[in-house]
Amino acid sequence: EKIKEYGQDLLLSAEATDGIGKTEKAAILNLERFTRDGFEKLMSTNNLDALVTPRSYASTLLAVGGFPGINVPAGYDSEGVPFGICFGGLKGTEPKLIEIAYGFEQATKIRKPPSFKS
């Protein structure tokens, strides 16, 4: 069924609620604490410019905290399917992340334009 295939059932379930209750507020506070005491602390304490992960493995972590991330091509698997590398950082580091990602792209020249077979 298409609804389940695209996660529409989750949206419909969310719309059926009456908003944010005590449990959801506690979860949000927990996520804020994990963000502050986790990712933000890691980046600050170690004076890091970016978190680097293969593919988009960091996307959930970045999304939860509202942090920027950029994915660029990093290679191709044994079947020729492309995969990427993710650079993530603290809020306000978008220019630095773009610079890092661009530098990676220029150094590797890994990206190949897609070819379409008819």
TrEMBL record:
Annotated PANTHER family: AMIDASE, AMIDASE DOMAIN-CONTAINING PROTEIN
Protein name: Amidase domain-containing protein
Signal peptide: none
Domain of life of the organism encoding this protein: Eukaryota
Organism listed in the record: Citrus sinensis
InterPro entries in the cross-refs: AS_sf
Classification of source organism: Eukaryota, Viridiplantae, Streptophyta, Embryophyta, Tracheophyta
Gene3D superfamilies named among the record's database cross-references: Amidase signature (AS) domain
